[in-house]
């Protein structure tokens, strides 16, 4: 039964002492209930002011909004930084009340507002360095409804600063944000890791912390949450010398983490704290020069030298630089030969973490809204190379006869607000060379081409060449899938790895075949030279792992969709086997 929950009270005033005084006086002519809620109940507030073409915001909660706000004004006068920010600014203040607000509920509302606002393109920075999601309390079961109503009121007041919830939830920053309310499993791991880091830094002892987890098990959010809380703790301690870095060898993820650090004020206070591995190593040439280093997607680190890295193993080199190293790893997402991990190479760190009681495994699937039967089907396809009957449950797996019909369905999904983050993605079976043009002069872009249907679409990042400066500036802080024009492109594993889609339209090229009741991988059909090269192992022998890496590539693609997975297979036998499995399900 739907609960009868009162509407929130949302008031917008100019952000200065005169306007606050006038608002306080005006409450005496409001209803007694409204006056009581604003003056005597806990409230949440949002200071916001324009900064160039964006906003800066400060979100807080208080048991006495008038005293608290006057404290802010007084502190602004004393603080030169705030004086500079607010001189001549057209600042506004939102004051939010509700008859059921208590300390826990207002803290939860404050946290969610910070989470949403840091995910808004038009917000440059969110002030108030803390995270405070609450557990169960009265009336925690009303939180979602009350928050939605608050956001709707704010949206009606300023659509630019408070966009639709669906737009926020589709943003890459929202999905990687440290302000998510964690699951019980994630909270347990977070508390343990923070405890181990604290002890290690106090005792000045080397610690390896190792987190295993497959795609969609919440590794990034957990990593982000621990990283942010460490900075919040050190700021409260007044430790300006704290040295903590996040390393990830993924261009799109670097961008997301960097944006989060900027929006939460970490970059402003501590400088550059997010980087790729080679850049981190160049900036920290001395051993033990960093307190803590987090390595997200550690499976993407190089295990041999290449053009941009002159060492032998990036993980070995990074471990030397920090007192505490947090390693996040998924062996099923290694996509290149120069990132291939021999078991003994990674096990020495996993085993060290086990020895120090610092090994954790995440197993709960948090990305895909899928039942066990669906997850088992994807596991069978991507791991066991078997096609079972396709389950027809709430998660939609659908097989297509042509890339044309697949594209039409993905465009249809992308045209709806609630599923706009739906895109075509494919394995690397078609040529693509960054920063160069195809040799065929008749071919304008590097493309995914299905000859059988005479269908072709540009690879990711090709259409941005046609955008003007204004359009490029608009998409600067968006991941590939968030950019509107990418509905006309095909994403690759390297673009989409680590990110979510509402619906994933997967095109499987000719490297994925079906023969004699088994899925097989044909390295002769891939265009990824990083897969087919031979690997020199630690014993000096050379070996090819192309089939294993191609299998990983397909698993990355097939675990992107939150709500559904649509598939077109170029191989005739594979396509027929999938269609048969769909009918049998």
What is the subunit arrangement here?
single chain
- The total beta strand count reads 22
Category by helix and strand content? alpha/beta
**Whole-number tally of structural domains:** 3
Strand content: 15-25%
What's the main sheet like?
6 strands, parallel
What is the gyration radius calculated from CA atoms? Answer: 26 Å
Tell me the span between the first and last alpha carbons: 35 Å
Low-confidence stretches: none
In what order do the strands lie side by side in the largest sheet?
A: 8-7-9-10-6-11
**How would the global form be characterised?**
globular
Helical content stands at 25-40%
Average pLDDT rating: 92
Number of helical stretches of at least 4 residues: 22
Q: How would you describe what is shown here?
A:
- The protein is of the alpha/beta class.
- It has three domains: 9-169, no CATH class; 184-362, 3-Layer(aba) Sandwich (Rossmann fold), CATH 3.40.50.300; 372-584.
- 39% of the residues lie in helices and 19% in strands.
- The protein has 22 helices and 22 strands.
- The strands form six sheets. The chain has a six-stranded parallel β-sheet. It has a five-stranded mixed β-sheet with strand order 1-4-2-3-5, sandwiched between helices.
- Helix 14 (314-319) links the parallel strand 9 (290-295) and strand 10.
- The longest helix has 20 residues, at 184-203.
- The protein is globular.
- The relative contact order is 0.09.
- Residues 206-571 form the Schlafen group 3-like DNA/RNA helicase domain.
